Predict the 3D structure of the following.
Amino acid sequence: MVDLLTLLAFIPAALALNLTPGADMLFCFGQGLRSGPRAAVAASAGIGAGGMIHVMIAGLGLGALVAAAPWAFDVIRWIGVAYLLYLAVQVLREGRADRDGAPGLSARRAFMTGMMVNLTNPKVILFVLAFVPQFVRPDAGSVLGQFVVLGAVISLGGFVINGAVGVFASGIGRRMVRGGRALSWITSAIFVALAARLAVLERI
């Protein structure tokens, strides 16, 4: 398993990555803005769960396929783009219901959405393949076990930080509720921006 010194070196590196604004943080911000703190925390948990699945895939060696096969990367990437655009359209279609006082996204749906957004971003698994192995020592025991421990550190840190950003955004969202459809347009624009970012993503 991961030795203590390696773990102590890994934690600040992972925390620095978690604190760097990115797609996950922006997604949780959008969920909090639109559907409130519960949905934001659930979306963050879903992203963390998706990240752990990526870590398991990388630990099993399957991630090398994505790294080596450009077509696999592009297929996953464009599925992600389509899914984010679908979410953007759904937000606008549901804007009227939100404005009339209907509840926003449920925690369960926010969790599943966050997980799907993470799983359809192939750059996550390529990042895991580039970053995590630097802290894995084959002579320290199960490589998969080390991947899981280190991935859990990243996911837990991301869950706390992205969830906090989403909760903060929910406060802004409550103050903007009277803005009617403007809130839906802002949230939809966030999803479109994420889709555009993924569409022009360069492979690492």
Remarks:
- The CA atoms of residues 46 and 115 lie 4 Å apart.
- The first helix runs from residue 4 to 19.
- The mean pLDDT is 80.
